[in-house]
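lol forgot to send this yesterday, sorry. struct tokens for the thing we talked abt
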């Protein structure tokens, strides 16, 4: 596969206004130079910030402050997309989301938003939370490709 057919996995943010409420400064930074017909979702924000870090004349202070987080978000996005592209129909991708501490919750929530936005016609996503454990408990997730 790949010579004649390529499969792409896409996800969208269902409420772009919520993104601006949650991360107003990142939204402003990512989307200050709008691209025609571009959505303003989490995945688009990660892509825009990663490109901004590479190509825009940001100060060294901004690069130092945002660079590691942007690179990590872009790495996670690419890894999730690669895993979903690699699995065959009927296959399963398993992921254990572990924030490590309350301060790591943003990353875990971002991955959950990505998984919840996967199209139902292509994927079934099962998130198994521990009802009586702390919010920082590991969160097993199964993604079944249809």
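and heres what i got for the seq, position by position
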């Amino acid at each position: 596969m790949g010579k004649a057919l390529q499969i792409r996995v896409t996800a969208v943010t269902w409420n772009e206004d919520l993104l601006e409420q949650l991360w107003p400064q990142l939204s402003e930074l990512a989307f200050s130079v709008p691209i025609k017909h571009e959505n303003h979702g989490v995945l688009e924000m990660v892509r825009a910030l990663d490109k901004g870090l590479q190509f825009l004349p940001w100060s060294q202070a901004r690069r130092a402050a945002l660079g590691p987080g942007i690179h990590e978000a872009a790495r996670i996005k690419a890894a999730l997309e690669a895993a979903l592209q690699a699995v065959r129909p009927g296959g399963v991708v398993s992921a254990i989301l572990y924030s490590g501490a309350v301060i790591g919750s943003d990353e875990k929530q971002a991955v959950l938003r990505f998984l919840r936005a996967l199209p139902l016609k292509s994927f079934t996503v099962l998130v198994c939370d521990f009802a009586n454990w702390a919010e920082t408990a590991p969160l097993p997730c199964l993604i079944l490709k249809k």
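The chain has five helices and three strands. anyway ping me if u want another try
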